[in-house]
């Protein structure tokens, strides 16, 4: 019988019908627990894994189709810092997925440029600030599924301060820089400037210096070059043009066995010596291995005493410039004894002719002939400029011309030929008047003709430093006349500054615009700390044909003989005015007064208050007068370059730390910053922290008074402002007389001035400029071993080989961590 019972059952469908391979619940539990167990503590593993969003807010986004927690991140910095120093930001991220993105962004504070070459790190240069300022940065990490987390970092940045330990005085034959810095040789005497010129042998056989680096590297500027290599880029710190002066020569090292003896010079030797003078334009680049010069650059150029020049400004075409080469007085040949310089706001280089007078020959009897044929006025002017009857430096004019009929050597013989026209168109009686000018060069155009800017006056031009260029204000250019008891000058353009002219393509035309018309002034320093600029303009301030000192004929006469004009108006005789520099933050102008052996207790004044005996420590010799020099500074009335009045004080007096603190070491210098004979002077560029807020002032020395203790040096300082000190009355003790003087002295520099560099034996430290970012500093080492002979050199620098002939050279200084130099 069949079973008819109804069996009642229930099927819940719990059978395997899903063929996919997705994770099971246990898989999810295992996965989440292995990743987050340390963060969950006692929470239920399964519940946290599946429902993490409700139990742990950090894990509420989705990944792998179920959920995704963002990376766990942390971020730190290298700590609080000050302006110009390198700051490193470091971020860390952990995640069970790959980290595919790490970024740093600035949230607040002065904007900086972040740089990163390694994931999770970024660096920047701390900006210049006037008070401690917080900069905030955000580190963000992103994983492979798009989840991201961020963490903020706060970096406190303090105002700029000097950031190196002072180097000790040194007599070693090397370049000494602070710990954490490197000085590398970049461009040396004789280095070839094209591929056709052989490498330098340095044994006296080398020739063709018109295609090599010249000697005695001096004033220098850096001009940024675009990546194309054919156009300016003022902000490029990796590629540019160095333009530098070659002031003079160490002739004993240029020839095989020194200068060949004899009554006449060898033409080949004279040509070599002349070509070593002038200016270099040389391309330089920075790669991962450092700086180098580009030997085959089409922009490389040498300017020598042979290079054609044109005159511009009020003296152009004056009979004072008539020569056999240029009967109309509009052209000339060459520049010589180029010392300091100026970096013009429109991107040109100003080279300045300093001790040019000594190169000229004037035979015995020339004064009498000159007086008889031209008049006593001409002889008086020559005498005032040191153009005495003499054979001329190095006896060049005794050599025959390299090319028959040429006058490239003969032009330095200014002796009157009485058979030639009185106007001077048949000889070179007026050739000295073609020297002593500021010469403007366009570094970007190797075919351009340099222009001698006569509106800036004729003197022993040390430099021509522009004041601050402010739109709508007439710019000024400050100059020293480098000789004992000479003057400080200022040229103010007739044309107000137009900011767009900074990037003009016709750069020499900008020079025409701003430098050919204006007013030349000379400085008078008053004992009460005030001063005035006296205009040197024909018809004003007694500068007329009836002047009892010198009868001026016209403005060309005033400018060609501005020393005589300064005498006539009562300018202040200074202790060898050399380099000028303008503080980019305040506009104050500083001028080095290198020394003055003719300053006696009887003729001191408020601005030149010292005359004393400075004994040598290693001998019985001594120096007298103002042996160690000082640095004067002035602030224009209303802080404008157009001012005709100023206030002044002495920023720092050079002295050995061991000298009398009451009457000589007035700036309380010590072993970390004592110096003598300040010469080169330059403020950090306003394009970086070394030229902002409290700009760095670089001071270079050209000394003979303290070299028994140390070689010449370079110091870095952060000056205050005019008037930050007080007055001081000092007693001067000379060889046979005493006197007192009251001066105005700035606050003692203390730790805000430190010795940064000491050079090799018998050198001068001179010439300086940085890249726009301030992270590479170019400095010139001039005439190392100048007292030696070819067979017994007193220095071998920059070679490390005993017996090697020394060479003037440019060094580039960098901070090992990449920061701004000095900060």
Overall shape:
globular
Helix/strand-derived class? mainly beta
Q: pLDDT average, as an integer? A: 93
Count of alpha and pi helical runs:
9
Biggest sheet, in brief? 9 strands, antiparallel
Count of beta strands = 41
Which regions contain 5 or more consecutive residues with pLDDT less than 50?
A: 1-15, 28-66
By oligomeric state, this entry counts as: single chain
In short:
The chain is mainly β. The protein is built from nine helices and 41 strands.
Provide key terms for this protein.
823 residues, mainly beta, Immunoglobulin-like, globular, Ig-like_fold, PhoX, Phosphatase
Describe the structure.
This protein has nine helices and 41 strands. With 823 residues, it is mainly beta. Among the domains are: 72-158, Immunoglobulins (Immunoglobulin-like, Sandwich); 295-354 and 436-785, no CATH class; 355-425, no CATH class. The strands form ten sheets. It has a nine-stranded antiparallel beta sheet, with no helix packed on it. Strands 15-14-19-18-17-16 form a six-stranded mixed beta sheet, covered by helices on one side. Strands 9, 10, 11, 12 and 13 form a five-stranded antiparallel beta sheet that branches. It is globular and about 105 Å long. It comes from Sphingomonas hengshuiensis. This is Phosphatase. Residues 1-23, 601-625 are annotated as: Disordered.
Write the layout of secondary structure elements.
Blueprint: H1 25-40, H2 45-50, H3 52-55, E1 72-77, E2 81-82, E3 86-94, E4 99-108, E5 121-125, E6 133-143, E7 148-158, E8 181-188, E9 217-224, E10 239-246, H4 267-275, E11 278-287, E12 290-293, E13 301-303, E14 308-312, E15 331-333, E16 338-343, E17 349-353, H5 366-373, H6 376-384, E18 438-441, E19 451-453, E20 465-466, E21 476-480, E22 484-486, E23 488-493, H7 507-515, E24 518-525, E25 530-535, H8 555-560, H9 562-569, E26 574-575, E27 577-582, E28 589-593, E29 612-615, E30 622-625, E31 630-636, E32 645-653, E33 678-683, E34 697-701, E35 713-717, E36 726-733, E37 738-745, E38 753-758, E39 764-770, E40 776-782, E41 809-815
Helix pairs in contact: 5-6
């Amino acid at each position: 019988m069949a079973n008819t019972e109804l069996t009642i059952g229930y099927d819940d469908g719990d059978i395997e019908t899903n063929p996919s391979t997705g994770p099971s619940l246990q898989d999810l539990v295992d996965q989440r627990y292995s990743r987050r167990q340390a963060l969950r503590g006692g929470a239920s593993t399964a519940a946290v894994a599946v429902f993490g969003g409700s139990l742990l807010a950090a894990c509420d986004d989705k990944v792998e189709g179920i959920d995704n927690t963002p990376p766990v991140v942390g971020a730190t910095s290298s700590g609080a810092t000050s302006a110009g120093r390198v700051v490193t930001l470091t971020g860390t991220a952990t995640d069970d997925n790959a980290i595919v993105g790490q970024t740093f962004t600035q949230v607040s504070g002065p904007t900086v440029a972040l740089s990163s070459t390694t994931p999770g790190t970024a660096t920047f240069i701390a900006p210049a600030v006037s008070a401690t300022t917080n900069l905030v940065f955000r580190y963000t990490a992103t994983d492979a599924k798009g989840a991201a987390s961020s963490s903020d970092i706060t970096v406190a940045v303090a105002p700029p301060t000097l950031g190196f330990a002072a180097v000790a005085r040194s007599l070693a034959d090397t370049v000494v820089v602070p710990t954490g810095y490197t000085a590398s040789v970049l461009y040396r005497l004789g280095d070839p400037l094209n591929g056709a010129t052989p490498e330098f042998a340095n044994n006296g056989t080398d020739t063709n210096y018109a295609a090599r680096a010249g000697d005695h590297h001096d004033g220098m500027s850096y001009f940024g070059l675009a990546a194309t290599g054919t156009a300016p880029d003022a902000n490029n710190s990796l590629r540019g043009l160095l333009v530098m002066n070659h002031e003079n020569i160490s002739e004993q090292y240029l020839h095989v066995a020194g200068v060949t003896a004899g009554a006449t010079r060898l033409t080949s030797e004279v040509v070599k010596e002349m070509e070593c003078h002038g200016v270099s334009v040389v391309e330089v680049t920075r790669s991962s291995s450092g700086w180098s010069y580009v030997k085959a650059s089409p922009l490389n150029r040498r300017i020598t005493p042979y290079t054609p020049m044109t005159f511009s400004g009020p003296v152009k075409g004056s009979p004072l410039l008539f020569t056999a080469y240029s009967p109309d007085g509009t052209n000339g040949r060459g520049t010589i004894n180029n010392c300091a310089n100026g970096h013009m706001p429109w991107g040109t280089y100003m080279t300045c002719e300093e001790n040019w007078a000594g190169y000229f020959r004037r035979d015995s009897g020339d004064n009498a002939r000159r007086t008889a044929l031209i008049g006593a006025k001409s002889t008086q002017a020559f005498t005032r400029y040191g153009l005495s009857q003499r054979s001329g430096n190095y006896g060049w004019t005794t050599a025959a011309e390299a090319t028959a009929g040429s006058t490239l050597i003969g032009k330095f013989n200014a002796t009157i030929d009485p058979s030639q026209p009185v106007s001077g168109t048949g000889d070179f009686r007026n050739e000295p008047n073609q020297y002593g000018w500021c010469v403007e060069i366009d570094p970007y155009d190797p075919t351009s003709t340099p222009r001698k800017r006569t509106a800036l006056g004729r003197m022993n031009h040390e430099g021509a430093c522009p004041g601050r260029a402010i739109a709508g204000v007439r710019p000024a250019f400050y100059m020293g006349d480098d000789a004992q008891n000479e003057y400080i000058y200022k040229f103010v353009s007739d044309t107000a500054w137009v900011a767009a002219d900074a990037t003009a393509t016709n750069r020499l035309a900008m020079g025409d615009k701003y430098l050919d018309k204006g007013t030349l002034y000379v400085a008078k320093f008053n004992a009460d700390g005030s001063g005035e600029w006296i205009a040197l303009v024909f018809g004003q301030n007694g500068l007329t044909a009836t002047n009892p000192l010198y009868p001026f004929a016209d403005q060309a006469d005033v400018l060609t003989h501005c020393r005589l004009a300064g005498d006539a108006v009562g300018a202040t005789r200074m202790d060898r005015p050399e380099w000028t520099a303008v503080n980019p933050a305040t506009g104050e102008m500083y001028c080095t007064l290198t020394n003055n052996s003719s300053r006696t207790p009887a003729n001191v004044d408020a601005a030149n208050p010292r005359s004393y005996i400075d004994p040598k420590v290693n001998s019985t010799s001594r120096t007298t007068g103002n042996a160690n020099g000082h640095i004067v500074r002035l602030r224009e009335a209303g802080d404008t370059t157009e001012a005709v009045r100023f206030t002044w004080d002495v920023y720092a007096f050079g002295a050995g730390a061991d000298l009398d603190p009451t009457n000589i070491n007035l700036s309380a210098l010590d072993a970390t910053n004592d110096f003598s004979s300040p010469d080169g002077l330059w403020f950090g560029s306003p394009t970086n922290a070394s030229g902002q807020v409290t700009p760095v002032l670089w001071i270079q020395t050209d000394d003979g008074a303290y070299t028994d203790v140390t070689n010449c040096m370079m110091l870095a300082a952060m000056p205050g402002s005019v008037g930050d000190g007080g007055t001081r009355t000092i007693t001067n003790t000379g060889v046979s007389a005493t006197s007192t003087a009251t001066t105005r002295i700035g606050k003692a520099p203390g730790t805000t001035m430190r010795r940064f560099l000491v050079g090799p034996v018998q050198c001068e430290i001179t010439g300086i400029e940085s890249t726009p970012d301030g992270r590479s500093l170019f400095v010139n080492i001039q005439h190392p071993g100048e007292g030696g002979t070819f067979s017994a050199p007193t220095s071998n620098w920059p070679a490390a080989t005993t017996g090697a002939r020394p060479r003037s050279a440019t060094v580039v200084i960098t901070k090992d961590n990449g920061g701004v130099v000095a900060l």
